[in-house]
Design a protein that fits this description.
Shape: elongated
Oligomer: single chain
Strand order of the largest sheet: 1-2
Largest sheet: 2 strands, parallel
Number of strands: 2
Structural class: little secondary structure
Number of helices: 1
Radius of gyration: 22 Å
Order of helices and strands: EEH
Strand content: 5-15%
């Protein structure tokens, strides 16, 4: 498990998004000539900038210590062959039951961790 230190956990909210319903929360850079946020006055919300970026070594790393890689077919697993210690496979949502089972079986052979291996694979119920 990798200890990930994030500089800022909470999201940057758009100025006045708490005041008006018409203004969404997603960040937009303030561009007005009198904007107190753009002028960085004390007591105002912080503006997003490059200094808030996370460390390169832990960027996009999940709590399990691995970077996630989307896989949609068995062939995609071979891209992870040399990177099975740093990356984990995530089976795409559009994959069906047969493809999913084939990917899990092939990943077991190649010693690649599949994050959502048990998703959409129900065990057969015994009929009475």
């Amino acid at each position: 498990m990798v200890h990930i230190i994030k500089k800022k956990v909470n999201k940057f909210k758009r100025h006045h998004s708490d005041r008006h319903v018409r203004v969404g929360e997603s960040w937009r850079k303030p561009r007005g000539i009198d904007s107190v946020v753009r002028r960085r006055w004390r007591g105002q919300i912080k503006m997003a900038n490059i200094g808030y970026g996370n460390a390169k070594a832990t960027r996009n790393v999940h709590p399990d210590g691995l970077k996630h890689f989307n896989v949609n077919c068995e062939k995609d697993l071979e891209l992870l062959l040399m990177r099975n210690t740093t990356h984990a496979a995530v089976i795409g949502a559009a994959c069906g039951k047969k493809t999913r089972a084939a990917i899990v079986a092939r990943a077991r052979e190649l010693d690649i961790k599949v994050v959502n291996a048990s998703a959409k694979l129900r065990k057969e119920e015994s009929s009475q």
